[in-house]
Design a protein that fits this description.
Elements (H helix, E strand, L loop, with lengths): L1 H20 L4 H4 L2 E2 L16 E4 L4 E5 L8 E4 L3 E2 L1 E4 L6 E7 L1 E4 L4 E5 L3 E6 L3 E3 L2 E3 L95 E6 L3 E3 L4 E3 L19 E5 L3 E3 L4 E2 L10 H7 L18 E6 L10 E2 L9 E2 L16 E6 L5
Parallel strand pairs: 1-6, 2-8, 3-9, 7-10, 8-11, 10-13, 11-14, 12-15, 13-16, 14-17, 15-18, 16-19, 18-21, 19-22
Antiparallel strand pairs: 3-4, 4-5, 6-7, 20-22
Length: 372
Amino acid sequence: MRHANALSLTSFTCLAALLAAFPPAAFAAGPVKAVKGSLFNPADFASLGKCSVGAKQAITFDTGSKDREPTITGAFTGKGALGVCEGGKVEVAVFNFDELQLKQGSTVTITGERGIVILAKGEIVLETPLSVSGKDGAAGKAGVVGITAAGGPGATNQRPTAPASGGSHGGVGGGSSDYAAEAAKSPGSSPSGKAYGDGPVTDLLGGSGGTPGANPGGGGGGGGGGAIAVISLTKLTMTGDSSISANGGAGGVGKTAGAGGSGGTIVVAAPTFWFRWGGLSVKGGAGATGGPGVAAELLSGASARQTGSGGGGSGGRVAYYTVEDLGAKGKDQLEPAAPAYYATDVDGGDGGYRAADGDHGSIYDGTWPFAK
C-alpha cells in the first residue's frame, strides 16, 4: 500500500507540472498587452486559421464576461483570447485568424460584455454588416448597452424629477429641455456627463447610456454604442453590404422622455484599405420628446411638445491606422471632417423638442504601427 501511494503522488506531481507548463487556454494564461493603444499584433496570439463564412451562414462572436471566455459559434467554431489595452485596465476579447472573409448574405452577431478585436495576419474581407450598437430605450425601459469595455463614464447624473440628458463620449451629450423654467415651475435639467477617451483610442471604450425620463412612466434612456477594432497586417477590404456601426440607441418616449446614448468606438487598421462600402458609424442616439402627461403637470396649457424632452447622445470615436495620409496633411492627428472616400459618421444625436443635440465625436488619422 505504501508503494502504491508513492506512485500516485508521483503521477499527480508530474500532471501538475505539465498543466503549469501548458495552460489549457489563453483565458487562463492572462491577457496580452496591446502594442500601442488598442492595436494588437496577430503574431502575439495563436491563430484560429482561415475562416470563410458564406451567404446564408451565420456566426456569433461572444466576447464573454469576467467569468466566461470568448468563443465563436455557428458556421465556424473556436475560442478567442484576452487582450488588455495600453492603459492597462480595459480588457478586450481577441479573435485572431490567418485570413477572414465574411461574405455578402452571411449573418454576424456580436454579443458579450467586452469590446471585440478581430485580427488577421492576412487579408480581412468584410461583405456584410458588423454592429455593436446600443439598443433604443422604450417606455419605462432602458436600452441595452452595446458590446463595450466601459461602464458608462459619460452617463449623466439625473435629478429626481428632471428631464433627461444625453450620454457623452467623443463630445458632450445634449442637455434636456427646460421649457417650464419660463414659468418658474421647472424641476430643472439633468447635467450632461463629461467627454472621455481620446482620439488615438488608447483604450477601446464603449459609449454611455442616455438618462431615462424621470417620474413614473418615463421613457428609457438609449444604450451606449459598443467598441470594436478590426486589424489586418495585410489589407482590409470592405465591399458588398459591409458596414461597421457602434451607434448610440435612441431615448424612449414616455411621460418624460428618455435621452440618447452616446456612440461607441471603432478602430480599423491595415497598411492598405480597399473600401467600397456603407461606412463606419458611431453616431449618438436621438433624444425623445415628452408626452402630454408631463406637460399638464409642469405647465398648465402647454403643448405636449414643450416639456420633458431628452437630449441627444454625443458621437463616439473612430480611428484609422494606415500608411496612406487620409485627410488633412500629416498623420497622428484629429481630422476636422471625414476623409474623402471614407464615409464616417460621428454626428451627435438630435435632441427632442427644445432639448439640445449631442456634440460630434472624433475622427483620428494614425500612422501604421507595424513593419511593412
